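ARCHIVE CARD
SHELF: 3
SLOT: left
DATA:
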Amino acid sequence: MEDLSNYEKLKEDANNYYNSIGKVRSPVFNEDVGFNAEGFNHIVYKTARTERERPSQILRFKLLRLARKLVEVSTTYQEYEETLKEFTVKRHKKKVNKSQPVKYWGIIAIIDGRKIKVILRKIGENGKLHFWSIVPAWTTNKYRDIKFYTTMKGNPEED
């Protein structure tokens, strides 16, 4: 069992490192990938009000350097999924729900001896590509090529 007593320090160090990244160039997309607050928040929380288990968070904190490296060196992505999701946006000083396409890409590799998957996300047609999550030790789906438009296993919104 992992020692959770230094959780706050690990979280603070990970957050400082994450914020120092800003953005990195992705060869596979030939554009910058932002490491914004949403991505770090997603490492800590599974959904808006559900915190991930502490050992899972700590593992993800420790894998952040590999996630950055993978985004910087990968020339292919292995998974893709597109879905519609509702977002609350402000329109004329009122909050309204708006559906937008959300695209997810999974970049999978063994890097520095660790098997990881980094999920990148883009909201809307003109949205910016950003880091969404890092998934350690996932299972591979043998039949992932059955559906061309959905090749991800699991739920990219929560993973």
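SLOT: right
DATA:
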Amino acid sequence: MDRWLHTWAWKAVWAVCAAAWLSGCAGPRAAAPLEAARIESKIASLQGRLKGLGTATDPDEARRVAHAAVTDSYRLADDYRVATPARWHNLLIQMGFRERGLCFHWTEDLMKRLQALSLRTYRLHWGVAHKGSDLYEHNSVVITAWNQPFESGLVLDPWRNSGDLYWAAVREDDYPWVPLPPDQW
């Protein structure tokens, strides 16, 4: 009897631990306390990078784009009920536990928000890497100064860090970005 109790006690402990682990991974992302100063710092940093894309860029537009991109990325993470990391969230979508949050969803939603700004000195592009690959295709917004080529742009990628906006120069990023023609958006 003692051996039976011991065996069942360990099984119960393992079951509770497994349930706790799985619920933590599959549950919605815990709302990290986002300090206003940290968000403002991200916005200012992105604004500086955007201003550096061309000499004819409007500093006010750079501020509006930076604010929208940073804050809307956090909002989309909440809307999508993001589970981290991003690839885990993708799996939850594939299994039917989440509806949105694949990279092209982030791109589509962020693109709509940025297009609503009616930009005059910037141009928005839909960037794609590894187009057509089921495992490696990745999509993101790319922004350039109005008269500059795609390759001189800045990748705005909210998917990569699960709503904490990532940005990098197209030429310096790990992904081999190419523009998706507007008729394919």
